[in-house]
Amino acid sequence: MKNLTEGNITEAVIKAIEGTREPRAKEVMSSLIRHLHAFVKEVQLTQDEWEAAIEYLYDTGQISGPTRNEFVLTSDTLGISSLVDIINSNPDGGTEASVLGPFYIEGSKMVEIGTNLIGDSEGEPTVVSGIVRTFGGDPIEGAVIDLWQTAANGLYENQDPDQPENNLRCRMLTDKDGYYQFTTIKPVSYKVPTDGPVGRMLDLQGRHAWRPSHLHYKVSADGHRNLITEVFYEGDEYIDEDSVFGVRESLAIPYNLITSEEEAEKYGVSSPFYRVKFDFELEAL
Ligand SMILES: [Fe+2]
User: Between the CA of residue 85 and those of 96, 98, 264, what are the distances in Å?
Assistant: First the structure.
């Protein structure tokens, strides 16, 4: 096409992708092109600003690797990940989804129900349990609970060379009653990494990098949609200002302080300790 102008270039690009094989891919890419062009026109993007955007993407790729994904963190801190979660949540019910975050590792160790994950970790002992069930139905036996969380220093095991492999992360199968239980430390609020492009962006926007205390979960079971979510401590000081917009009211729960020596002995922890209960409801496929 000759004589491309601000007025006709968008249609020229849309025409160029007309042969896209998958209808959904064509729909998504056409819309993306329209929105990106509209955005560039609206703000009358300068050459310097375009270069800064390319540099951001380049740096994001450079700092990303097997144990850190700055693209995920970019999506999280711009609210895109949560928007996708919200759009794809079942409006009829079931446990709400929340961000995967950048620190998930596939294939962490499989442990028995009731395992104590604390090891050498410092922190407040916390016993977590609950039931996995079909939304509106029965408990699910053999559901896989995949858990990961920060240590007391606010770092995940794969961010911190001083933590042993698999520290404070595990997988566990529910029993015949859909029950899971593990002992860990109370997770702490922490800052998302600020030494990369996301940190520069947050600084420019005058935002803090804090996330309220949470446990990450991936829950899966045959015949059910996989659930990726987080369970938050409702009393955390950052509960209403999560830097990645992951908090939902239904996912914020109390940590009950138990002072009974007898109860502590039952779970093999020292007193006082926290007791946390959370049930997961999966959508049947
Ligand atoms: Fe996290």
Answer: 8, 6, 37
Ligand 1: centre distance to CA 18 (Å):
41
CA of 208 to the centre of ligand 1 (A): 15
- 2 C-alpha vs ligand 1 centroid, how far in Å? 51
Beta-ladder partners of 147:
170, 217
CB 229 within 8 A of CB 98: yes
Which single residue is written with the structure tokens 């794969």? 158
Between the alpha carbon of residue 86 and those of residues 61, 98, 99, 231, the distances in Å are: 27, 8, 10, 16
How much distance in Å is there from the Cα of 244 to the middle of ligand 1?
10
Summarize pLDDT for 244-274 with one digit per residue, the tens: 999 999 999 999 999 999 999 999 999 999 9
Give residue for tokens 């959904």. 24
- Tokens 């896989």: give the residue: 144
154 alpha carbon – ligand 1 mean position (Å): 9
Interstrand relation of 169-173 and 144-148 (parallel, antiparallel or unpaired) = antiparallel
Distance, CA 190 to ligand 1 centroid (Å)? 8
How far, rounded to the nearest angstrom, does the alpha carbon of residue 273 sit from its chain's CA centroid?
26
